[in-house]
Specification:
Elements (H helix, E strand, L loop, with lengths): L10 E5 L5 E8 L3 E7 L2 E7 L8 E7 L3 E2 L3 H11 L7 E11 L4 E10 L2 E16 L5 E12 L18 E14 L1
Length: 181
C-alpha cells in the first residue's frame, strides 16, 4: 500500500461498513461506561482536500442495528429510548466543513433522531490515506462529539434509588470511518 497525495483524492467515497464504526459511549448509573455502535448503515462522503469547505457527508443508520453487547439492554434501548418501530432511521447530512489544520476538520450538519432534526458539530481527524491492493482509494477519519440525548427526545424516565439518573444525558459519539473510492 502506498501513501497518496491528499489533493489527488478529491472525489466521492462510500463508507465501508465492514471497517467503519459508528459508536457511542454513555454512563449508566453515572458509574459504568456503556459502549455501543450501530452496525447497519450506508453513507457517502465527498472529499475535496484542495478546498475542504466543498466536502460533504451523508449517512443513514438503521436504528435496529444498535449493539451494546447485551441483547436485553439493546431491546430496552430500541423500544424505550429510540422508539425504533416508529423511527427506524437516524440521518446525518453535513452543512459545512471547516479546516482546523492540515489533518483536523470541524464538520457541521443536521442530525435527525426520532423525527427531531438538530445541528451538531463533529471534530474530525484525517488519519490515513492509501491505496488498497485492489487499487481503490482509501481514506480514514476519526471523529468525536458530545451530545445531550434529551435534545432528540432519546429519554426514559426511570431513576435509581436516591433520585440519581439511571443513564447519563451526555452521550459521546465516536466515529472511525473508512471510506472507499
Amino acid at each position: 500500500m502506498t501513501n497518496t497525495a491528499r489533493t489527488s483524492l478529491t472525489g466521492t467515497y462510500l463508507l465501508d461498513p465492514a471497517r467503519t464504526r459508528l459508536g457511542f459511549v454513555v454512563h449508566q448509573w453515572l458509574v459504568a461506561e456503556i459502549r455501543g455502535a450501530f452496525t447497519a448503515f450506508a453513507g457517502s462522503v465527498h472529499l475535496d482536500f484542495a478546498d475542504p469547505e466543498h466536502s460533504s457527508a451523508d449517512v443513514t443508520i438503521d436504528v435496529d442495528s444498535l449493539a451494546t453487547g447485551n441483547a436485553r439492554r439493546d431491546e430496552h434501548l430500541l423500544r424505550h429510548f429510540f422508539d425504533a418501530a416508529l423511527h427506524p432511521r437516524i440521518t446525518f447530512r453535513s452543512t459545512g466543513v471547516q479546516p482546523m489544520d492540515d489533518d483536523q476538520f470541524r464538520v457541521t450538519g443536521m442530525l435527525t433522531v426520532k423525527g427531531r432534526t438538530r445541528p451538531i458539530q463533529l471534530d474530525v481527524v484525517h488519519t490515513t490515506t492509501t491505496i488498497d491492493p485492489d487499487g481503490r482509494r482509501i481514506v480514514c477519519f476519526h471523529g468525536r462529539t458530545n451530545l445531550d440525548r434529551r435534545d432528540w427526545g432519546v429519554t426514559w424516565h426511570a431513576t435509581v434509588e436516591g433520585g440519581g439518573a439511571f443513564v447519563s444525558n451526555r452521550v459521546v459519539i465516536e466515529l472511525d470511518v473508512v471510506a472507499v473510492g
